[in-house]
Each structure stands twice: as C-alpha cells, then as structure tokens.
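pasting for ref. prot 1 ->
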Amino acid sequence: MERRDFIKRLAFLAACPLCVKTAYAAEGVHWSYEGESGPEHWGSLSKENSACSSGSQQSPLDIRGAIKADIPGLALNWKSGGTILNNGHTIQVKATPGGTLRRGDKPYELVQYHFHAPSEHLVEGKRFPMEVHFVHKHAETGALGVLGVFLVPGAANTTFASLAAAFPQKAGDETALHYVDPRGLLPTSLKYWAYEGSLTTPPCSEIVDWMVAIDPTEVDVADIKRFTALYSMNARPALASNRRYILSSS
C-alpha cells in the first residue's frame, strides 16, 4: 500500500496542473465521448493520456462479485455553496473549501463534484440514468478519493432541483451557487463498494480510491432531462477489472 501511495503521489504531481482547473481532465487536447476523439482513442490523443489505453487499473467498472468486508465507514462534513460551471464535458460544481470526507483514518477534502449520464459504473450489468462523482484530494498523499452516487427517477430532490435550475447552458459559463447543500444528493445509507482505479476522463491517471454508494438517490425525472438536454451521453464505457478486488460494506 505504501508503494501505491508513493506512485499516486508522483502521478498526482504530474497530473495536478491539469486537475485543479475544471474536472480533473486533460486540457489543451480535444477529447469527447464519440468518434475519433472518443474513449477508444483517448490514449492516442496525447502522450499524457497514455494510461487511458495502457493502464491496468482503469475506471469505471461493472461492479460484479463484490466481496463483503469490514471496510471503514464514511464520515462526511461538506459545506454548502460554491460555483457551478459548464466545462464542455459536464456540469461541475467547484466546492466551497473546507468540506471533508473521512474514510477510517484517511482524510480527504472535497474539491468538486460533477455529473454523468448515463452512469459510468454498472452493477451486475445494469446502468443507471445518472451518476454524480464527488472528487476529493487526500490531505497527506495528494491522491484522490472519489465517491460515486447513482441518481434514479423518483421523488423530487431539493438539492438536485436547485442545481438543475442553475445549470449553465453554454460551455464556459459559470455562476455562483448559494445555499445548495451537496449532502442532499446522498442516499440515506452510506454503505459502499470500494476499489482502486483511475480518473474516468483523460489523462486517466490511476490515482483514485473509488467509493461507490450501494443505494441510489431519487431525483425528479424532469431534472434528469434538464441535464441530458445538455449532455445526453458523457459516460466512459466500463473497463476490465484485471483481477482487482471490489470490496463491499458488510
């Protein structure tokens, strides 16, 4: 584990200039979710993206055969507000500084959260309408901890409705958010699946401790449509697990 943390540290330092600006994604090189700049070509678009094609711990995954284990619980203390941005690939919220996630004795700070449609992770082959990724930076190693939550049609969700009403319509548009609490996007239970993986966008750096909530969160289907009107498909296909273990809260 120490060796992996050291590798994560180096990878994060290499990727950091790309990471802190928008969605932890490569900038300066055009990439997309289809055609000649789509996921199957990301690795050849730039040498910085080589992990997208040659990496062995890529994300997302189809979560199958998870092993029940005594994995640490999650403690969240996020802050309301921030800024909301249409970055050309998704809608992203830059979090108010100081929000934290603690997984056992590992502390992370919430940097941003963003959305994918349909979901990037699958569960036993099933894909969900949307997925939100809460991206955190480890306070000591600089590695990333990403919490994924599936969003499904159902009862209206106040937080998602507020975000949907504020979605910037054009790439590059950004506006302030007031009093929107990201904790409203969480399911009641914080049981989760855990595995070691990567960013799901270029440069696909393998520096992520993934946590995917087992239970989904219900949101109004009309608010899902507000997102898909902007981004109808911004999900990377599931990748091979390559014998990685997926652990599940017991």
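and prot 2 ->
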Amino acid sequence: MGIARSSFHADSAAAADDTTLLEAMHAIKDEFEAYGWRRVQAALRQVGWVVNHKKVKRLMREHGLHPVLRRRFCRHHRQRP
C-alpha cells in the first residue's frame, strides 16, 4: 500500500480537539449537576456524541466536572434497650 500501519490508526486533528465535546459536557453538568460519568456519557450519546467512557472520565477529572453528591434523608433508628 505504501503507508505505515500506524498512520491508519493515527488520531486526526478533529479528534484531538475536545473543545466542542467539553462545551457539551459543561452544558450537561450545568443542567444536571449530580450526573457522574455514566449519565454524562449517556446524555452525550443522546445528543449524538459517541465517546469512550475512559475519555469522559478523564475529561471530567481534568476539568473539575465532579458530581454534586446528594444525601438521602435517613432517620436513625433507636436502639432498643
């Protein structure tokens, strides 16, 4: 063929530029602040982005898109004497 095998798998410049993906992730996190990487990835898939979960986790970690943890109300039970 005349081309190196590694050049077939090389990332394009469009794939390396994650600004539009990050904008979509920020929009999701602004609307749903308690979403973790699984829900963010599912929301991205609904919008039309097909992204690996490792990339979603890495970008969320690098850009501080941590989910806000919600505590459920839990009433402590009294111990019987």
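Helices lie at 5-8, 13-16, 19-31, 37-47, 53-62.
The two ends are 82 Å apart (CA to CA).
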